[in-house]
Each structure stands twice: as structure tokens, then as C-alpha cells.
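Contributing new records

If you add data, match the layout below exactly. Sequence lines come first and carry their own label; structure lines follow with theirs. Keep one chain per record. Anything else will be rejected by the validation script.
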Amino acid sequence: MAITTDQIKQLRDATGVSVMQCKNALEEAGGDMDKAKIILQKLSAKAASKKADRTLGSGTVASYIHGGGAVGAMVEVQCETDFVARNEDFQSFARDVAMHVAASVPEFLSVDDINEDAKSKAKEVFEKEAEGKPDNIREQVIDGKLKAYFKEKTLLEQDFIKDPSKTISDLVQEAIQKFGEKIEITRMARFGVLE
């Protein structure tokens, strides 16, 4: 099947990925736009792992204030170069993350940031809920509940408010593929009047 420039343009507009990567993904998917997006998502995870040990040397701070000024958030998103940090699409990405933080109220940036005290308190609650369950599934029930509970409280694990089919971690991986640099959300803060 011949891939048209309109198909490539449509996929590029939807993903922001390079023209050649879009063309290759469409060819591999036989022209199926949804399959091509999945192929590009797999490529973004691969690209992110290759860039994991690079040094972050630049970045941006983005903010979002919700209508009326009652809720706001700030995030620091780091990248490798000033060239990417000043890129309009990169700044838009950072602003989307700030908007997500304002809306979703994450307590932790990543799973690694969850302290033992928070884990033990949550486990206590879920152990009580799992009382009476057979021993062979009790631990599985507790682990499942802990994962679900902390997924809601951890920024990188949360579903993106603009597109719930992606997590914030997926967005970061897509940004790494798009900009060709290591990118990390390094800090976040959320503010709310009377919260």
C-alpha cells in the first residue's frame, strides 16, 4: 500500500514525531493510522531508554492557573539543551503537565518518591479490607489495591487528563522521541485557595 503525504502529515500533526518516523510507522502498519500510533509509542519507549544516562543541562518552569485563580501549579521540566528548552512545543508540553498537576492533585512525582510511612499506612488499611480472604490471594489483593491507590497519587503513573489513554510517563517518553533529548519532570508544586 502506498503511503500518501496527507497520511504522513496527519500522523505527524497528531504525534509531533519526525516525518521519516511517521512514514516508516505507516508503512509498517500498512497505512492503519491507529496501528502506526502504537508503533510510534513503542519507539518512544525505546528512545527514552537509550537517552536515560544523558545529562540534563537546561529546562523550563511552567505554570498553570485555573479560571478564577483558585488553583494553580508549577512544574520544572528539564532537558539537555537550551535549544529544546526554548522550543514552543516543549514549553507547551511543560504547561500541559502543570495543568495536569493542578487538576489531578498528585502527591508524589514518581513511585520512587513514595516514602515508607505512606506505604505502611496504606498497607494497614488494605490489610484490614483483605481480612477473611484466602491466604493464597490475600497478598495479591493487597498489592493490587496498593498499586491502584498509589497510581492515583503519583504524577508519572496518572492518566493524562487531556488523553486518558496515556499516562504522564507516556507523555514524557513521547517528548523524548519528539525532541531527541532526555527529558524529566524534576519538581512540581500545586496551590489551592482554602485547601
